Every structure is written in C-alpha cells, then in structure tokens.
Automatic annotation (TrEMBL):
Source organism of the structure: Algoriphagus oliviformis
Superkingdom, natural source: Bacteria
Catalytic class of the enzyme: isomerase
Domain UDP-N-acetylglucosamine 2-epimerase positions: 23-365
Entry keywords, A to Z: Isomerase
Name listed for the protein in its UniProt record: UDP-N-acetylglucosamine 2-epimerase (non-hydrolyzing)
Family statement: Belongs to the UDP-N-acetylglucosamine 2-epimerase family.
Length: 369
C-alpha cells in the first residue's frame, strides 16, 4: 500500500517520526514523507535527529501570512502531491492547519485518511484559536482514528464514529521519547547538551519553562513572565526557558526577563537536548501539549499555564495541574511543590496515562502484508 505521512510543525514531526521509522521497515508499505514546513528550523532539527528525509518539502511558511493564506496554499500544494503519488492512505496528525487541510485535500480525491492523535477535544465553542476546529474537521472525514487514550476514543464514539474505526494506541510521543532517552543513555551528546550541562548548576532545582500558545499571546505571556521573575528569587531555584521563535513569545519574554539572575533564556532546543533538560528538571511550567504527555514518563510534575485542556487524563491521573496564567497562582503552586515533598512525590510518581511507547507498533500491525 502506498502511504503518505504528512506533517508541518515540530510537535507533529516528533510524534510522527517513530511511525515513519516503523513504516520504513515495513515491506508492505511504500512510504512517502511530505512536510509542509509550517515550522522550518525546528522541524528540520527533528528530521535530522531521527534520520528522516522528506520526499516532498512544500516549504509553505512565509512571514506574516494569514491562516487563510497558509491553509489555501497547503490545500493546493498537497493536492499536487496527491495527484502525482495516488496514495492509498494519508496519515495526518493532531490539530494543525496542515492536518485539516491535507485531510480535506485527500477527502476531495477519495484517498483514505488516518488520523494520529485523534479524538482530543476541548469542546469550547467560540474559541478564536484554530486547534479545536482543526481536530474536529479532521475527525469528521477520517477513516481510521488512532486515539491515544480511552477518553479520546469516547469523544469520537459520542460523535458517532464507529467502534471498528478507532484504535486506542497510546500517544506516539512516548515512543519518540523512548527513542530519545535510549540515545541519551547510550552516550549521545551534542553542542546544545554540552552547553546545557554548563548552565545547569549542581544543587539548584531547575524549573523548565516553555510556552507558545496563541491563547497566551499578549497579556498571558506578560503574566507568565511576572510569575517567572518572582519564582527566580526563590533560593536554590534556577529557571531555564527555551524561548519559542514566535515573535509574540520572543518579545514579552526578552523585554521582561532579560538579564535577571537565575533566569536563563535560551534558544528553542532540538529534541534530544530538550529531553535532557526535562530529565534534569525539578518542575516543568508549560502551555505545551506534548510536554504534558512526555514529562510524566520522566517523573516530572507539570504545571500547565492554561485555563483549559484537551488532555484531561493527565489532570485526572495527577501528573499535571492546570494553573492558568495568574502570577500569584503560578507562584504559589510552584512554591507548594518545592516546599512540600509529599506533594512533589505524589505528582512525580503518578501513572502516565499517555501510553507505554508501543503506539506505533499497534498502528503498524494494521498494515502488515
Ligand atoms: N520541544 C523541543 N524543544 C523545545 C521545546 C519543546 O524539542 O525547546 C518538544 C517537546 O519535547 C515536545 C514538543 O516539542 O515533544 C512540544 O512542542 P510544542 O510545545 O511546540 O507544541 P504542542 O505539543 O503544544 O503542540
């Protein structure tokens, strides 16, 4: 069967890479990889780390392009790939403009669609942010849904998807994490990791911060920065913040947090260095989806700087806590974890609901010859 895996952003690349590697080894699959490059540099780093090469690089990101411009360019550029390759299946991931537009292009051509990380929902109605509508639109036209958890399966079934069209797999991010951890354990080191080692001070508790969500642009990031500034004054704490390249993140963070003792603003890290940093962290403060899924496997408590989440399993399991963006709330939740070892122990030892690292094997089993 001919299969096209298509993705565009860093997190999608991380989560699709283990599947691409698995499919490459499957003689029943003729695999093509297509990247839209919604992220450019951060995506290329992931491809390099996992040793993947794109058969099609659509290179569609332009500065200041609107979501509609991006969406229409993805739709028409991917249509040409479909025309040329005539695949049996396309695999899309998650909730990006790449996912929804490539799925739509495949739907118009009657190509079957598989959706990895299917069934996540916030069900927030009039949100101006595209993720929820991207995942719902993609889910509507998907033929085969790979749900990471039973609650994502339940969402799909409530929406009328037949049970036989859903497979609960665990999240492929755990497969990717295992690959990265194995590599680190076998002595892998690069310049970024060497540099991190020189920044991390023995005896200090590392608080790692990441953020990139549109919903936190503006006031959200200003409040987050205020909280981080306050946290950096706690004795024995060291903040390490790989700052996302989006100017809406760069600007407030550089304006409000530059030059403060104990706060290390660094460039976004390539995946292996970020995994190294997560391992070295005491607490992780983030608005990221993927980090919420990965960090519990490393035994690291995650405080999520959002008001809502499409990943309720981790909150229920107790590995993750929603803290929003109120500076006082963020500060007090971090301080409580630092000062109360029982709280810390409870969060860091809770069970990770996002899987066992065998997700891509479960998907691959459906495609053996
Ligand atoms: N990540 C990375 N380098 C960084 C920050 C994050 O490689 O400097 C990884 C992280 O391990 C996770 C993914 O990027 O696998 C999450 O991406 P992001 O937070 O951008 O997106 P989301 O998961 O929220 O869609």
């Amino acid at each position: 069967q001919k299969v096209i895996l298509v993705f565009g952003t860093r997190p999608e690349a991380i989560k699709m890479a283990p599947l691409a590697l698995k499919f490459k080894d499957n003689p029943a699959i003729d695999l093509k990889i297509c990247i839209t490059a919604q992220h450019r540099h951060m995506l290329d780093q992931v491809m390099e780390f996992f040793g993947l090469q794109a058969d099609y690089d659509l290179d569609l990101m332009k500065a200041n392009q609107s979501l509609n411009q991006l969406a229409s360019r993805i739709l028409s550029a991917f249509d040409e790939v479909l025309e040329r390759e005539q695949p049996d299946w396309i695999f899309v991931h998650g909730d990006t403009t790449t996912s929804s537009m490539c799925a739509l292009a495949a739907f118009h051509r009657r190509v079957r669609i598989a959706h990895v990380e299917a069934g996540l929902r916030t069900y927030i109605k009039d949100s101006p942010f595209p993720e929820e509508i991207n995942r719902q639109m993609t889910g509507k036209i998907t033929d085969l849904h790979f749900a990471p958890t039973t609650s994502s399966r339940d969402n799909l079934q409530r929406e009328g998807v037949e049970e036989q069209d859903i497979l609960v797999t665990g999240n492929t991010v755990i497969d990717a994490l295992h690959l990265a951890v194995q590599k680190l354990q076998s002595g892998y080191e690069d310049d970024e990791i060497a540099q991190l080692k020189s920044v991390i001070t023995a005896g200090k508790k590392v608080i790692t911060v990441t953020g990139h969500r549109r919903e936190n642009f503006g006031g959200g990031f200003e409040r987050i920065c205020e909280a981080i500034k306050k946290l950096s004054a706690i004795e024995d704490v060291q903040v390490i913040f790989p700052v996302h390249l989006n100017p809406n993140v760069q600007q407030p963070v550089n304006d409000l947090l530059s030059g403060i003792a104990n706060i290390h603003l660094i460039s976004p890290l390539a995946y292996p260095a970020f995994v190294y940093l997560m391992q070295a962290s005491h607490i992780i403060l983030t608005d990221s989806g993927g980090v919420q899924e990965e960090a519990p496997s490393l035994g690291k408590p995650v405080l999520v700087m959002r008001e809502n989440t499409e990943r309720p399993e981790a909150v229920e399991a107790g590995t993750v806590k929603l803290v929003g963006t109120d500076p006082e709330k963020i500060y007090s939740e971090v301080a409580a974890l630092i000062q109360n070892p029982e709280n810390y122990q409870r969060m860091s030892s809770a069970y990770n609901p996002y899987g066992d690292g065998q997700a891509v094997e479960r998907i691959n089993q459906l495609f053996v010859g």
